[in-house]
Amino acid sequence: MAAVCQVTGAVPGFGHNISHSHRRTKRRFDPNIQKKTYFVPSLGRKVTLTLSAKGIKVIDARGIEAVVADLQKRGVKI
């Protein structure tokens, strides 16, 4: 599963692990991605979204109807 949030667009960040001797190795900072299912009354069905924790909070604040409308406007297949 790709580590990308469908609502916020959060993607992995990249950086270094730095050891005690100050050697640097590449690492990846993944967003907290969850699969979450919501019932959308306007569509009359359930929708499964790949969301970050921040994306879940956005849906709680704005409502699933507004978020789904924005996703459809952007052309995201739901």
Structural notes for this entry:
It comes from Leucobacter chromiisoli. Belongs to the bacterial ribosomal protein bL28 family. By secondary structure, this protein is α+β, with helices and mostly antiparallel strands. The chain is built from two helices and four strands; from the N terminus they run E-E-E-E-H-H. Helix 1 packs across helix 2 (64-74). The mean pLDDT is 95.
Produce a short descriptive summary.
Helix content is 27%, strand content 36%.
What are the salient characteristics of this protein?
single chain; 78 residues; 27% helix; 2 helices; alpha+beta
- The percent range for helix content is 25-40%
Enumerate how many helices there are, as a single number: 2
Mean pLDDT: 95
Rg for CA atoms: 16 Å
Strand-pairing-aware structural class: alpha+beta
State the strand order across the main sheet.
1-2
Mass-distribution shape? elongated
